């Protein structure tokens, strides 16, 4: 049973922005004002909804709803795109009987396309007719683009005798390399929490989940994670209980991030790149991202090829500071490269079964410190090229 937080409901409508005969306009709404957090893309080309949310962060008012459209990114659309975004909020706010500043906008789709305002306006009648009638699963489906399936995760925990619920949903399968990637994430919670605490907890959860995945090394113009908490289940204030709430929030984000990598466009594998022995966490991150982003490493994993040469070559150009003679690499728990030299063995046959599995573990020791970093990556396949070569057609 999906643990929907108290006081939240969902509405979907088929606007026809890009996809025929499917819902592509979504509202997540609370019946009371929410404290909220937003983690936004660091891409310098930021979509109109991202820029509007940045303005809302500066104003720092409570919000009541998230409005999401799939099929048109409203990115690189200039002042007209900003005006379109604000107009959609005004129109939708009237339908929801809210103020425009109570709505957080998010868009996903083709970069450069303006929102089709006539379709948006026509869809409002459908939204109005179905207010609060959709399920959480309906909402998760309606935010999808090239996703193969909806992505949801939830937790329920008891704090001071109160049941607290957290529910998250996300979309994303390609153009994934979050650095707050195309990914959107929405988290709702019915706990009453301090806004500053909530924003810090969300930032930590995102940093250790959505910001540690890669499909293709591309960070989008629209990436965002919104998290709303409406206090309908009661206040959570004790330090021990806040720690438990933060842990549940982090688990929801980590589960969603894993589902994104699992759904990678054309992907067949989840690669766990774990780097240790670095001089700092930042050095470990450089090494992990070089390996996780490498098309040669990713295609080798798709081909079930234990080609350690591609892994160490990626490490060598990563920018991380290490002694090559101290580097060791293990695949599926088997050390294939040790202290700067290959381990002589028939790895093609010994690792054949392990590399057929959906999840592949790659452990890299740089041998020079306490820094650690883990990145989830996908493999690269012919299907990824097909999907993205024909994305606009």
Automatic annotation (TrEMBL):
Binding-site residues, substrate: 145, 171, 182, 265, 388, 393
Site (Involved in the stabilization of negative charge on the oxyanion by the formation of the oxyanion hole) residue list: 108-109
Keywords: Acyltransferase, Amino-acid biosynthesis, Arginine biosynthesis, Autocatalytic cleavage, Cytoplasm, Multifunctional enzyme, Transferase
Subcellular location, record wording: Cytoplasm
GO MF assignments: L-glutamate N-acetyltransferase activity; L-glutamate N-acetyltransferase activity, acting on acetyl-L-ornithine as donor
Record bears the keyword Transferase: yes
Pfam families reported in the protein's UniProt record: ArgJ (PF01960)
Active site, UniProt feature: 182 (nucleophile)
Cited InterPro entries: Arg_biosynth_ArgJ, ArgJ-like_dom_sf, ArgJ_beta_C
Major localization class: cytoplasm
HAMAP family, sorted: ArgJ
Family: Belongs to the ArgJ family.
Name of the protein described by the UniProt record: Arginine biosynthesis bifunctional protein ArgJ
């Amino acid at each position: 049973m999906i643990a929907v937080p108290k006081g939240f409901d969902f509405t979907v409508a088929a606007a026809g922005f890009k996809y025929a005969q499917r819902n592509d306009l979504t509202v997540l709404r609370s019946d009371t004002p929410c404290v909220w957090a937003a983690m936004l893309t660091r891409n310098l080309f930021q979509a109109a909804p991202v820029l509007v949310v940045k303005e809302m962060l500066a104003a720092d008012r409570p919000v009541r709803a998230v409005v999401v459209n799939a099929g048109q990114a409203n990115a690189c659309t200039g002042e007209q795109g900003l005006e379109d975004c604000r107009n959609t909020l005004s129109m939708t706010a009237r339908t929801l009987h809210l103020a425009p500043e109570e709505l957080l906008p998010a868009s996903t789709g083709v970069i450069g396309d303006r929102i089709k305002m006539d379709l948006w306006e026509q869809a409002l009648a459908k939204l109005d007719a179905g207010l609060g009638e959709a399920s959480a699963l309906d909402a998760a489906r309606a935010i999808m683009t090239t996703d193969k399936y909806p992505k949801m995760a939830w937790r329920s925990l008891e704090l001071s005798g109160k049941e607290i619920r957290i529910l998250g949903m996300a979309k994303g399968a390609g153009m994934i390399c979050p650095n707050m990637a195309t990914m959107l994430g929405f988290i709702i919670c019915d706990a009453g929490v301090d806004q500053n605490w909530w924003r810090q907890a969300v930032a930590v959860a995102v940093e250790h989940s959505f910001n540690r995945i890669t499909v293709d090394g591309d960070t989008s113009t629209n990436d965002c994670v919104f998290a709303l908490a409406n206090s309908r289940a009661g206040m959570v204030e004790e330090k021990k209980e806040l720690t438990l709430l933060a842990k549940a929030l982090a688990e929801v984000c980590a589960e969603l991030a894993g589902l994104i990598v699992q759904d990678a466009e054309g992907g067949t594998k989840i690669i766990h790149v774990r780097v240790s022995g670095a001089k700092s966490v930042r050095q470990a991150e450089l090494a992990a991202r070089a390996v996780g982003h490498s098309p040669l490493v990713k295609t080798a994993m798709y081909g079930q090829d234990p080609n350690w040469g591609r892994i160490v070559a990626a490490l060598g150009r990563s920018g991380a500071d290490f002694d090559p003679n101290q580097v060791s690499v293990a695949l599926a728990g088997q050390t294939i490269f040790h202290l700067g030299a290959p381990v002589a063995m028939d790895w093609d046959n010994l690792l054949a079964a392990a590399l057929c599995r959906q999840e592949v573990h790659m452990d890299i020791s740089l041998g020079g410190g306490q820094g650690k970093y883990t990145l989830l990556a996908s493999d690269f396949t012919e299907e990824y090229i097909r999907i993205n070569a024909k994305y606009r057609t």
